Amino acid sequence: MKNDLARLLRQGLEALAADIGLQLPDNLDIQIERGRGSGHGDYASNLAMRLAKPAGRPPRELAQALVDQLPAHPHVERVEVAGPGFINFFLTQDAAAAAVARIHQEGREYGRSPLGAGRRVLVEFVSANPTGPLHVGHGRGAAFGSALGNLLEATGHDVHREYYVNDAGRQIHILTVSVLVRYLEHRGEPVPFPVNGYRGDYIHAIARDLEAQHGERFRVAGPSLTADLPADANAGGDKEQYIDALVERARGLLGEERYREILNTAVAAITADIEEDLAAFGVRYDRWFSELGLVDSGAVSRTLDRLRTAGALYEKDGAEWFRSSEYGDEKDRVVRRADGQTTYFASDIAYHLDKFERGFEQAIDVFGADHHGYMARVRASLAAFGLDTTKLEFRLVQFAILYRGHERLQMSTRSGEFVTLRELREEVGNDAARFFYVMRRPEQHLDFDLELAKSRSNDNPVYYVQYAHARVCSVLAQAAERGIEPDTHQGLSALPRLTEEHEQTLINALGRYPEILEAAAVAHEPHQLAQYLRELAGAFHTYYNAHTFLVDDESLRDARMALIMATRQVIRNGLDILGVAAPESM
Known about the structure:
The strands form four sheets. Strands 7-6-5-11-12 form a five-stranded parallel sheet. It has a four-stranded antiparallel sheet with strand order 1-2-4-3, with helices on one face. 52% of the residues lie in helices and 12% in strands. The protein is an alpha/beta fold.
């Protein structure tokens, strides 16, 4: 309905502009909002107040002149000017009911729109380092990014979903030596495990696979690996210096070929586990983009060459620096270390440049909240290439904190004491996990209550919404048992009989669904849809508890059945976008 009213205003404004000589902006945004309650109409627009100054007329006078030019619409009863110049629309009694008919006609397509007009958008999300299994903190970014992609797709955008695999850099080398040390332990060459190494059973599993496939191929004498290295933290030394020295020693003893075999095996095993975990969580990607592939292809070097040619790099203390402070960052950043190795940031510059060179009109990075300081430097790199930095958006996702009772569970990938996403899914199920993750703004702190997520109560938001869908299915099953076959055509014709307050509330809620989808897509906020579904479920449950649907009055019965079947469809449509199932029984 909002789109219809916007079209009416545009047509009226074009007719009025010709009369008063008003020059309209090429991309005029006509805003329509829901009315504030009784006496203020069903919808309102502030268009006249926004155009009063360029038109050279008082807002109320311009509003009335615009109202006088509006074409008729079958669902608009009257239009009034109110306050300082608001244009209020009052709809006919059957206007809201028309949405119910649309739902039956459009089914799964109801609410979808061409808002994005095929605009190409790349959504990068999760992108966790392949150094261990995904934990429950990563799950929130996965659920958010997946739901955001679905939202954009539902509103006409051409969405590409991408996972950036950080398979190059220091953390991968730490992973490699962690696996090597465990492998040597299994081969009878005990080596003290580094304080800064990756722990956990998954490291042992990778080491056992290496042993099973390659036997003695990677065996080196334990003492030769650690001799004369600086002390580790548990011996009074620096854990960072020790692990870096251990990496260099391992590379020297094994040679680059054998060392790279361990590295590739470890990364491949963990990446495969991540991919399998996310697929089971209902998260899909169009591409897994390898950082190592970016480095090996020469893309990182070519990107730095371009920056160097543009005068955006300089040398200092043997390293090469990007002048990011000249492009809005708080300080300059190293892109090539004194040892000649490029930094993670250098790869990230190349990756983001690649995104836009592939023709995407917008890129959305879904990062953990700990990446807050990273935004300015990435935008600075795009500015150095003369790109429009507003086309890159960051959504920072707070890691969810998991509680079991009053106990806060730890999630450290180094210590190995973490709850994995897989364990969470097995305990509470995909549906509860995905709904809980997206029901608040991603920037908001989230305490994940395990007991609530598993409960079969109205306090559990996902259960509350799914139960509304299942209740409709139950009513239909009861009708079938009694030999009642609802006549949808007759039910839609009889919708004017649904005058009870609970019925009108539900009908109005159903009509809001397309608006909610567009608003959530524009704001990139799936939680708006989750909140709407909770409100819709609440309206349905209240209606269910107050009225009988399978009444003897056939016309009224069919009308009520048409209404609750439309409700079931909208709940199913919304849950599908959030990646949550719509069960028929619970």
